[in-house]
Amino acid sequence: MQTLRRLAVVSTVLLVHASVAPAQQTITFSADPFTGSTALTTPGRQIVGNELFTTFDPATDVFVFDPAVYGAYGIGSLSFAIGAVGSLPTTGVNTLVLAPSPIPFAAGTAANEIAARLTTSGAGFFVYFNSGLDVPRLVFSTDLNDENADLRVLARLTNLSGQGGRDALATFSSANFAVAVVPEPSSVLMLAAGLAAVGAHQAARRHRAGITARVRRT
């Protein structure tokens, strides 16, 4: 029983570590954003697409970034800001949600506006409304302060189209973004299998103990 309790504690720690409630959809990014691309070794800004197409509810859902991957780019924690580019803090932020702009935005133009606003270097994330696609997109930049920094489009939020999608950007908050360790699928499966095996063993022991007790009474 003590072993079972220890395994249960480990399981709880893994689940709590992600800091995500069961009702939330978590969209995790645990692979290097530029894997399979030559962007980082090619001079000038490179914009890598092939993003994830997904729905997203700002009231409940969370983007989760694995520090084992993004830590290599200097992301250890997130500092959030939202609003029109001209109203954003000029320093101390690395996670931005841009209010819809009268200027047509693509990933590159949005990144240029951010780079012109910020005064300190550092990698980060931003959500902007793509005028041509008519949906928001989540983008990672190797340096938000550099107009030549490489960009990786991580996600396209397919359900937030049109004016409703533009309006939804104002409802984003810091709760929609997290840095958390993403457990390896094999680790989670092994843990679940271990808990099941220990549980079955304990049940068998209780069953045998019950039979022995009945035999002794007779």
Please provide a written account of the structure.
- There is one protein chain.
- This protein is of the alpha/beta class.
- The chain is built from five helices and ten strands.
- The model is unreliable at 1-19, 187-193 and 211-218 (pLDDT under 50).
- Helix 1 (2-17) packs antiparallel against helix 5.
- Strands 2, 3, 5, 6, 7, 8 and 9 form a seven-stranded mixed beta sheet that branches.
- Strand 6, helix 3 and strand 7 (124-130) form a beta-alpha-beta unit.
- It has two domains: 1-18 and 186-218; 24-179, no CATH class.
Short description:
The chain has two domains: 1-18 and 186-218; 24-179, no CATH class. The chain is built from five helices and ten strands; from the N terminus they run H-E-E-E-E-H-E-E-H-E-E-E-H-E-H. It has helices at 2-17, 67-70, 107-117, 162-168, 185-217, and strands spanning 26-29, 47-48, 52-54, 62-65, 80-83, 95-98, 124-130, 135-141, 151-157, 177-179.
